[in-house]
Design goal:
The chain has seven helices and 18 strands. It is of the alpha+beta class. It has two domains: 127 residues, 2,3-Dihydroxybiphenyl 1,2-Dioxygenase, domain 1 (Roll), CATH 3.10.180; 178 residues, Roll (2,3-Dihydroxybiphenyl 1,2-Dioxygenase, domain 1), CATH 3.10.180.10. 40% of the residues are buried.
């Protein structure tokens, strides 16, 4: 592969394809995803150690495997074709980032033909694949449909004490582009968020960091994952179902100023947040210019429990977590 090929801009050729979550709360996750957010449960799978869910023709989009992490243990990113994958693998090799090819059993569990695994920022397993296993079996979902296709199945937000290194990773390996920035003061601390897009979706990765002191108050590798419903009714109906099932809203329905998405954030059985959104804008590459905003939300997105006692206990817990991270270096592959 010559140098010009390696340097080719692959923007638009990578999208989020699946997520693997480890939890000992499989029953709760089944209720949450099937009855709350309205995904299709793969009822034909008989494993007692794993459940999986569909959103479209892909045989698996969300996989919950039994274990104690209560966290994301892998994120799958679909690459447009083998040529693009080869470019990515070459870039990884040049940076001495170890790449492991999956076994057939691992690929089957993910619902893909094969994948290549690397250890990404914050020791997140990043899995790259080209071909997903598809099925024409009818979907049985409470949500009418989810927006996936070329923009992928959603986005992830990640907190980091090394945001510039994390940003470099996504830009150097995947040619990510900066969409915009948000600065907001929360409990006296300035939160800086950089939004990166890998395709026409406004962002596939958001990187958040605290400005004054480099702390990471989030226990999990991903602060939240976003999924996108196809209609306003999908959004409002899922919100009501989650409330009726007793799931706590981290942020009730509101709108972001940058991507204009209407959404709510619900706390999952593992404790991190899932955002369900509707109608974010699609970036026009010929006219888009990065902008800085000074609030995460234009309106709404209020916490379900805004009492001073609740906020104090939450902030105290986050502060303790942040202090504990300060003594451990954050892993970065570049």
């Amino acid at each position: 592969m010559n140098t010009s090929t390696i340097d080719r801009d692959i923007f638009g050729s990578v999208r989020m394809g699946y997520a693997v979550i480890e939890s000992n709360k499989l029953k709760d996750w089944k209720t949450f995803l099937q009855q709350g957010l309205g995904l299709h449960f793969n009822a034909d799978e008989k494993s007692i150690n794993e459940i999986s869910f569909r959103m479209d023709k892909h045989s698996k989009r969300l996989i919950i495997q039994k274990g104690s992490a209560e966290d994301f243990v892998a994120l799958g990113w679909q690459v447009e074709d083998q040529e693009t994958l080869n470019i990515i693998l070459k870039r990884l090799t040049e940076r001495e980032i170890t790449v492991e090819k999956s076994s057939l059993a691992e690929a089957e569990q993910r619902g893909v033909k094969e994948f290549w695994r690397i250890l990404g920022p914050k020791k997140q397993n990043i899995e790259l694949y080209v071909e997903a296993k598809l099925t024409d079996e009818p979907l049985n979902m409470l949500t009418s449909s989810f927006v996936t296709d070329k923009a992928g199945m959603g986005h992830v937000a990640i907190t980091s004490r090394k945001p510039l290194k994390m940003q470099r990773f996504w830009q150097e390996i995947f040619n990510a582009r900066i969409s915009d920035y948000i600065e907001q003061v929360i409990s006296g601390v300035t939160l800086d968020i950089t939004f990166l897009r890998l395709n026409e979706r406004h962002h596939s990765v958001a990187i958040a960091t605290t400005r004054e002191i480099p702390l990471d108050p989030i226990r999990t590798k991903v602060q939240h994952m976003n999924l996108q419903g196809a209609s306003l009714d999908d959004l409002s109906s899922a919100f009501q179902r989650c409330k009726q099932l007793g799931y706590e809203m981290a942020h009730e329905i509101g709108q972001h100023p940058n991507d204009k998405e209407l959404s709510f954030y619900v706390i999952s059985p593992s404790g991190f947040e899932i955002e369900l959104g509707w109608a974010p804008l699609v970036v026009n590459e010929t006219t888009w210019k990065p902008t800085t905003y000074f609030a995460i939300s234009s309106w709404g997105h209020k916490p379900e429990n805004p009492t001073k006692l609740y906020m104090f206990s939450t902030n105290l817990s986050n502060f303790k977590q942040g202090i504990s991270t300060a003594i451990h270096p954050e892993y970065s592959p570049i």
